[in-house]
Amino acid sequence: MNTLKLKETEFTDSTTHSTSKRFEIYIDGFRLFDRVKQIELKEAINEINNVGAYVANGEILTELTRYNKGDEDYMKSVLMICNCNVVDCWNFEVEILETEKAVIWRNFENNHRNWSYAKLGEFVFDKSEYLNEIKKNN
Predict the structure, then answer these.
(1) Short-list 105, 92, 111, CA closest to 27
(2) Do 98 and 124 touch, CB atoms closer than 8 A?
(3) Residue 57 in 3-state DSSP?
(4) Cα-flanking dihedrals φ and ψ of residue 101, to 5°?
(5) 42 — phi, psi (to 5°)?
(6) Which residues lie closer than 8 Å to 109 by C-beta, 6 or more apart?
(7) Could you tell me how far CA 71 lies from the centroid of its own chain?
(8) CA distance 112 to 133
(9) Could you give the CA distance from residue 2 to residue 29 in angstroms, rounded to a whole number?
(10) Distance (Å, whole) CA 76 – CA 96
(11) Nearest alpha-carbon partner for 24 in 52, 51, 56
């Protein structure tokens, strides 16, 4: 099983200069942002300015509990958004499944590029630990 940790950080919007609380995602001690950036660097040789241009999603605690229950209208959960702070500009998204004992993250994607994130694989979290991590940061 993988381990999820949410680390609180402060985000300052470069346009409005307002600050807000955000959570960075760590899986097994590694910051997800860094893993995604490594993959994108290989995918985006011609688009280097967009590579890893993410900040933590301000709605992450809600997004982490939007599970795919087989609904055809299911939209993936947004883990990180563009550093311009506009949702849907440059999202990093994941399908989240719930079982009796686990929460599974799979099928990662960028909402504007057909890049492969297969190297991330799937993350399987103990459901109780996963929900406790979200609850303690809520």
Answers:
(1) 105
(2) no
(3) coil
(4) -120, -5
(5) -75, -30
(6) 76, 92, 93, 94, 115, 117
(7) 21
(8) 30
(9) 10
(10) 7
(11) 56
Assigned token pair, 88? 């849907």
Could you tell me whether strands 19-27 and 4-12 are parallel, antiparallel, or unpaired per DSSP bridges? antiparallel
Q: pLDDT value at position 113?
A: 85
CA atoms in the 13 A half-sphere facing the CB of 109: 11
Which tokens is 81 given?
């958004």
At residue 52, the pLDDT reads: 58
Q: Is the pTM of this model over 0.70?
A: yes
Residue type at 69 in one-letter notation: K
Looking at residue 119, its amino acid is K
Number of Cβ within a 10 Å radius of residue 78:
19
Confidence (pLDDT) at 103:
95
Q: What are the pLDDT digits (tens) for 77-115? A: 999 888 787 778 888 999 999 999 999 999 999 888 888
Comparing CA positions, the residue from 121, 126, 130, 123 lying closest to residue 102 is 126
25 close to 19: Cβ distance less than 8 angstroms = no
Q: For the residues of 65-106, what is the DSSP string, one character each? A: T----S-TT---EEEEEETT--TTTS-EEEEEEE-SSEEEEE
Domain residue limits, the chain: 4-136
